[in-house]
TrEMBL record:
<dbReference type="InterPro" id="IPR013328">
    <property type="entry name" value="6PGD_dom2"/>
</dbReference>
<dbReference type="InterPro" id="IPR008927">
    <property type="entry name" value="6-PGluconate_DH-like_C_sf"/>
</dbReference>
<dbReference type="GO" id="GO:0005975">
    <property type="term" value="P:carbohydrate metabolic process"/>
</dbReference>
<feature type="binding site">
    <location>
        <position position="114"/>
    </location>
    <ligand>
        <name>NAD(+)</name>
    </ligand>
</feature>
<dbReference type="Pfam" id="PF07479">
    <property type="entry name" value="NAD_Gly3P_dh_C"/>
</dbReference>
<protein>
    <recommendedName>
        <fullName>Glycerol-3-phosphate dehydrogenase [NAD(+)]</fullName>
        <ecNumber>1.1.1.8</ecNumber>
    </recommendedName>
</protein>
<feature type="binding site">
    <location>
        <position position="286"/>
    </location>
    <ligand>
        <name>NAD(+)</name>
    </ligand>
</feature>
<feature type="binding site">
    <location>
        <position position="57"/>
    </location>
    <ligand>
        <name>NAD(+)</name>
    </ligand>
</feature>
<feature type="region of interest" description="Disordered">
    <location>
        <begin position="1"/>
        <end position="20"/>
    </location>
</feature>
<feature type="domain" description="Glycerol-3-phosphate dehydrogenase NAD-dependent C-terminal">
    <location>
        <begin position="211"/>
        <end position="359"/>
    </location>
</feature>
<feature type="domain" description="Glycerol-3-phosphate dehydrogenase NAD-dependent N-terminal">
    <location>
        <begin position="21"/>
        <end position="188"/>
    </location>
</feature>
<dbReference type="InterPro" id="IPR011128">
    <property type="entry name" value="G3P_DH_NAD-dep_N"/>
</dbReference>
<dbReference type="InterPro" id="IPR036291">
    <property type="entry name" value="NAD(P)-bd_dom_sf"/>
</dbReference>
<dbReference type="Pfam" id="PF01210">
    <property type="entry name" value="NAD_Gly3P_dh_N"/>
</dbReference>
<keyword id="KW-0520">NAD</keyword>
<feature type="binding site">
    <location>
        <position position="137"/>
    </location>
    <ligand>
        <name>substrate</name>
    </ligand>
</feature>
<feature type="binding site">
    <location>
        <begin position="26"/>
        <end position="31"/>
    </location>
    <ligand>
        <name>NAD(+)</name>
    </ligand>
</feature>
Amino acid sequence: MAPSLESQRPTLEDGETAPSKVTIVGSGNWGSVAAKLVASNTLKLSSFHDEVRMWVFEETLPSGEKLTEVINRTNENVKYLPGIKLGQNVVADPDIEHAVKDANMLVFVTPHQFMEGICKRLVGKIREDAEAISLIKGMEVKTEGPCMISTLISQQLGINCCVLMGANIANEIAVEKFSEATVGYRENREMAQKWVGLFGTPYFMVSAVQDVEGVELCGTLKNIVAIAAGFVDGLEMGNNTKAAIMRIGLREMKAFSKLLFSSVRDSTFFESCGVADLITTCLGGRNRKCADAFARSGGKRSFDELEAEMLQGQKLQGVSTAKEVYEVLSHRGWLELFPLFTTVHEICIGRLPPSAIVEYSEHTPKFSLLDGSTQLY
Ligand SMILES: NC(=O)C1=CN([C@@H]2O[C@H](COP(=O)(O)OP(=O)(O)OC[C@H]3O[C@@H](n4cnc5c(N)ncnc54)[C@H](O)[C@@H]3O)[C@@H](O)[C@H]2O)C=CC1
Ligand SMILES: O=C(CO)COP(=O)(O)O
């Protein structure tokens, strides 16, 4: 079991609330940076317990050592964020139940495909007063329809869940280059502000908007557009084509989000979680990078193979998200409304060549929304 770091804080006076305890569920590239951000703040803010526990999906490194042991010895996640000190108050814990049991603020940040299993393991294991935030970009598709990851967490664990998304390439934030992020909340503005306080630093500016679905869908859907941008890069089609793909992609992101949730606000697309994340991911993200290599191979190499070779354990979200969105579009008869999303999936599964990305995304949708008061694009 991972060691504990005792807080030196004095005992509580009457009426004083106990400091919040934070656990990070996940320890990949972004998960490790999230731990670093949070840990720098819990040391400074008296409303938080100093220690930040980080659940690590345990693995054995080529040296034969366990990843958690190395993180706790070196204060670095040598596999997913090498060269960056996380902060001495970050404690890596391979036991998920132990990691969450005392926490009342849970930060979920794993690749989205693992969340259903993680939630199942956590049912009945967390504090009743726990609050959650999801940094996960992705969705699940169930027989009854699409389910955002924050909803999965809320429903399975019976707790509130905000989201934090933004133009946040983890390696850049790790070295403290300036960036912004957006917290999406449902009703509890005070809780949203607490998350803003927990994450915000002078180099990581966080603001809150009352639009959980809008913020989460922005973060989720931009990964499909990043795959399209990678195809365009791999085909060496130039900046104008890539900008066109980003514009069409943004238009489909907005339309899809509003079709799923009429509450989604236009203004959310102008926050960091919207256009800014779309731009940074299409320029410098992992989805873009692997899609570029896929197109250069003429679609002959699989994404699974490229992911394993190029990302060394890190995970792509865009390919599975394209499949999940395709299922929703197909089930609801919306495929023709979303030529870019549809084409990305069909290229990923080898049904179309990478060059189809421009041929298809030029098509205009054949029909507009059934509700005549809303324009799709
Ligand atoms: N890396 C980045 O720059 C950013 C990532 N995100 C999002 O954050 C989320 C997490 O991504 P990263 O932290 O980058 O992870 P990552 O892709 O770097 O790492 C993969 C993680 O999955 C874990 N894992 C592998 N198999 C597992 C299993 N069976 N069960 C549970 N965990 C398993 C690994 O231990 C590792 O921690 C994703 O939704 C991603 O889209 C959001 C913003 C920036
Ligand atoms: O979400 C990200 C930046 O905000 C990272 O995108 P990638 O997963 O494509 O690297």
